[in-house]
Amino acid sequence: MATTEVRQPKQRILKTQDNERHNVCAYCRVSTEEDNQASSYELQVQNYTKMIQENPDWEFAGIFADEGISGTSVLHREHFLEMIEKCKAGEIDLIITKQVSRFARNVLDSLNYIFMLRKLNPPVGVYFETEKLNTLDRSSDMVITVLSLVAQSESEQKSNS
Predict the structure, then answer these.
(1) End-to-end Cα, the chain, rounded Å
(2) How far apart, in whole angstroms, are the C-alpha atoms of residue 86 and residue 91?
(3) d(CA 21, CA 39)
(4) Are the beta carbons of 19 and 57 closer than 8 angstroms?
C-alpha cells in the first residue's frame, strides 16, 4: 500500500481568535470503484483525518465520503447531503476537500452549495487543498467558477466516450 504524506496548509485556512476552535470535516469522493480509485479514497480519508486531528485549532467533525459515486449530481451523494445538513445546523465551520472536482462536477451544484454555505451564520468555508482556495475568500470566486466548469466539461467528455 502506498504511503500518504500529511501536508499542513501553509497559510491559516480559518482565522482564529484566542482559544477558539473550529469544527472541521473533510469530504472525500471517488467516482469509480477501480483499485487505484479505492486506494486514493482510503488515502484521502486517512490524510484528512490525521490533518484535522493534529491541528490544535480544529475540532474533528468527521469524514464524509461517497465512494463510487459520480459528482455530476448531489442526488445520490448521501454523505455529501448529510454534511450539508450538519453545516446548516451549525455543526461544521469548514469543509476540506482534495480539489474542486471532488466537491462537485456540476457547475451549478458547486456554486449553489458554495454560496449557500457562505451565507450561513456563521459562514461555512470549503477549502480545496490542491488549488489552495478557500471559498470564504471572495477573490477566489472566478477561479472556482472556471475550475467547476472544467470539472463539468471533463465529466461530460467521459460520459460521451
Answers:
(1) 31
(2) 5
(3) 31
(4) no
- The strand pair at 22-30 and 94-97 is best described as parallel
Handedness of CA 13, 15, 19, 20 (dihedral sign): negative
pTM here is 0.82
| Amino acid sitting at position 111 | L
Residue ranges of alpha helices (H) inside 9-34 are none
Closest CA relative to residue 106, chosen from 132, 84, 131, 77: 77
C-alpha grid cell, residue 24: 472541521
Q: In this structure, what C-alpha cell is assigned to residue 40? A: 486514493
pLDDT (tens digit per residue) in 84-140: 999 999 999 999 999 888 888 788 888 999 999 999 999 999 999 999 999 999 999
Q: Is 103 helix (H, G, I), strand (E, B) or coil?
A: helix
